[in-house]
Design a protein that fits this description.
This protein is α+β, with helices and mostly antiparallel strands and about 325 residues long. It contains 14 helices and 10 strands. It folds into 2 domains: about 210 residues, Serine Threonine Protein Phosphatase 5, Tetratricopeptide repeat, CATH 1.25.40.290; about 110 residues, Immunoglobulins (Immunoglobulin-like, Sandwich), CATH 2.60.40.10. The strands form 3 sheets. It has a 5-stranded mixed β-sheet, with no helix packed on it. The chain has a 3-stranded antiparallel β-sheet with strand order 1-3-8, with no helix packed on it. It has a two-stranded antiparallel ribbon with strand order 4-7.
Length: about 325
C-alpha cells in the first residue's frame, strides 16, 4: 500500500493487489498459481467474497500469454467459486472469442453454480465496471447460445445473471429480446422469472410487445383520478409526495410506474422510470395510492434546482404529467 490506496476504488484496489502479488510471488507462473491454490484451499467450505477477486485478476494480469492458456483457464474455474472471475475472463474473450466461448459453453454445464454463473456473467455485453465486449453488443448470438443452456437453471444466482445478460442485450437489440421472451415464456417457472427480469428495461421503455407478453396490453379499461402533488415545491433533501386513484372497468392486470424528468447540471432534463406496483384488478375495482419520492442527494444521484416533472404511467402509457419546483436545500 502507499499514499494513493485510500483514494482507489474497488477495481483499482484489486489491480494494485494483483500487481503486487506478481512482485512477490515466484516469477514462474505455474509456481505462483500453486501458492495461490494453497491459499484458496484454506478457505472454509462455501466461502465466497468478492474481495478475493484479486486472485482471478492475477490470472488476467499475468496469465494471458498463449503458453499459459490451459493453466489460466483452469485457475479461473478454480477461483471463481470463492470470488468471481467475471472481469478476468473478458480479455480472454476479446483475444480468443471462439475458443473462450467454447469454454464458457462447457462451464454452462458445470456442477458448481458459481462456474455456471461465470459462463453467463463473464460474457455480458455491458457488464457494470467490466471491460466492454463490443463484438457482442453488435452481434449477441454467441452469448445467446450460452443463455439457452442456462435458461432453466435451478440456481437463482445463475438465473439472475442470465436475466441481467438478457437485459444488457435488450438495450441494443430490443426486438430480438422481445422475440426470445415470447419463445421462452410459459414453459418453465424458472425461465419465466428470467424472462420477466430480463425484460425490465423493455417494460420501463413501454415496449408494447414486452408489456403484452406479461398481460399489460390493455390501457383503455384503466381510469386515473385525482393525480396530484403535495407540495408542488420541495427543497433538495426532502420528499415529493404524490397521490392518485385507479379504477378498472373489467378484470385486468395493471403495471403502474412514474417517470421523473430530472434537471441535470447543464440545465437539460433526463427521465428516470420507477415502478410502483403490478396489481391484478377486478372489474369495477378501485385502488388509491400515495407515494413518496426522495430528493436527497446520494452517491448515485445529485439533484439540481429547477422545474422538474412527474408523469404517471399505466401499462407504459403516460396518464398525466405535473410540474414541480426543486429548490436549494434549506
Amino acid at each position: 500500500m502507499d499514499e494513493t490506496w485510500d483514494a482507489l476504488e474497488l477495481k483499482a484496489r484489486m489491480r494494485w493487489i494483483a500487481i503486487n502479488l506478481g512482485k512477490h510471488l515466484p516469477a514462474d507462473y505455474e509456481q505462483a498459481l500453486g501458492i495461490i491454490d494453497r491459499v484458496v484451499a484454506g478457505y472454509p467450505a462455501g466461502f465466497n467474497d468478492y474481495a478475493s477477486m484479486y486472485f482471478p485478476d492475477f490470472v488476467e494480469v499475468y496469465g494471458q500469454d498463449e503458453r499459459h492458456w490451459d493453466l489460466s483457464i483452469a485457475a479461473l474455474e478454480r477461483y471463481t467459486p470463492s470470488s468471481s472471475a467475471e472481469f478476468a475472463v473478458r480479455p480472454f474473450i476479446i483475444r480468443h472469442e471462439k475458443r473462450m466461448m467454447a469454454q464458457m459453453a462447457a462451464w454452462a454445464g458445470h456442477g458448481n453454480e458459481h462456474v455456471r454463473r461465470l459462463a453467463s456473467e463473464g460474457c455480458r455485453p455491458q457488464l457494470p465496471w467490466g471491460q466492454a465486449l463490443p463484438g457482442f453488443k453488435k452481434d449477441p448470438s454467441p452469448v445467446l447460445a450460452i443463455l439457452e443452456r442456462l435458461k432453466a437453471d435451478p440456481s437463482l444466482y445463475v438465473r439472475k445473471s442470465v436475466a441481467n445478460n438478457l437485459n444488457d442485450i435488450s438495450k441494443t437489440h430490443p426486438g430480438l429480446i422481445a422475440k426470445i421472451a415470447r419463445d421462452w415464456y410459459g414453459k418453465n417457472q424458472h425461465t419465466d422469472w428470467i424472462v420477466k427480469h430480463g425484460c425490465r428495461t423493455l417494460l420501463k421503455q413501454g415496449n408494447r410487445d414486452a408489456l403484452a407478453l406479461f398481460g399489460f396490453a390493455d390501457t383503455d379499461c384503466v381510469h386515473v383520478d385525482g393525480f396530484a402533488l403535495n407540495p408542488a415545491s420541495i427543497p433538495i433533501g426532502d420528499d415529493l409526495t404524490f397521490s392518485f386513484t385507479i379504477e378498472t372497468s373489467k378484470d385486468t392486470k395493471v403495471r403502474l410506474e412514474y417517470g421523473i424528468d430530472y434537471v441535470k447540471a447543464n440545465g437539460k432534463r433526463n427521465r428516470k422510470i420507477f415502478k410502483i406496483s403490478e396489481p391484478s384488478m377486478k372489474a369495477n375495482g378501485k385502488k388509491p395510492y400515495t407515494k413518496k419520492h426522495s430528493f436527497a442527494d446520494a452517491s448515485t444521484r445529485r439533484h439540481y434546482p429547477g422545474t422538474h416533472s412527474i408523469t404517471l404511467l399505466v401499462n407504459g402509457i403516460g396518464r398525466g404529467t405535473l410540474d414541480f419546483e426543486v429548490v436549494a436545500s434549506r
